[in-house]
Amino acid sequence: MAAAEASAVFEGRTFGMHRESGRLRFSFEVTRVWKGDVGPKVELTTHEQDSMCGRAFELGVQYIVYARAGDGGTLTDSLCSRTRSSRNATEDFAELGAGVAPGRSGGATPQTASVEPPRIEPGPPAATPTKRGCSVGDPQRGTPWLLFAVLGLHLRRSTRPHTERALR
Length: 168
Fold this sequence. Notes:
By secondary structure, the chain is of the alpha+beta class. It has a domain at 2-96: CATH 2.40.50.120. It contains 4 helices and 6 strands; from the N terminus they run αββββββααα. The chain has helices at residues 2-5, 90-96, 143-158, 162-167; strands spanning 8-20, 23-35, 41-47, 62-69, 75-76, 84-85. It has a 5-stranded mixed beta barrel with strand order 1-2-3-5-4. Strand 2 and strand 3 form a beta hairpin.
């Protein structure tokens, strides 16, 4: 299970983002915790570029985060984790249970210190599922331009004067 591999598992809403030397630092207001010593506010880092498996969180959106401990004890996340928007985490909530309030997690299990799950407010529409992992872009994006270039070359050749064609 993804929670066993993570250093911290929590649910929180993003409220801030800072860039720092190729990394993004996101701030979360934590609503509940399943694993790790996570307080009411936490920051985690990810690579700035999705080609380096960096994750782009949307500000104001509620997420369930499966973070790992990075250098110096900071939390990190990447596209390879199970992190997802809370709206798409029904299976996760069923598996993890109720969770605990932030700051009281210190190793407590959800059965010993459960809290009522918070109301999840409607957010932006759920994104269409995509392949997981690092992507370099949409391969279909360049196709129309290539078609126009080939068509332009063909038209240019077909409009040359007959004498120029005879000389070739």
